[in-house]
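Lecture 7 notes: from sequence to structure.

We start with a single chain of 132 residues. Read the sequence below before looking at the structure.
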Amino acid sequence: MRLVEHPRIIQFRGQSVDTGKWLYGSLVFVEDKPHIYVGHCFVEVKSETIGQFIGIADSAGTFIYDGDVISVNGKYEKIVSFRSDRAGFCLANVSDLKNSAWMDIWQSPHVSWWNDFRSEIKVVGNIFEERN
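Now the structure, written as tokens:
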């Protein structure tokens, strides 16, 4: 078993309330509102867009965050999500979302899955923005 590429980086992202721009850094709460600490500055972000870096990058070196949509081998789109009932980051096939009321769609892949398919994984979007 190989070690994951970025095992100790703890980083978050969120969309700025003011500009809609994605910000990356430490997550802090100021007066109960979420902020990303960037370059000696606290910038308020939309709480629904906050995602944590999962500790793994895709085939192009792009960090993967909670809320991202990834593809495996150019197909098989999956949503990445932290699931408290699984105590970890999980995947769900985008095509299975319509079945979530009657089946468990979340999978907890072993670290070997990420290592075996890393060269085929690509971040293709996220659940917060429209895709073409």
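The mean pLDDT is 89. Keep this in mind for problem set 3.
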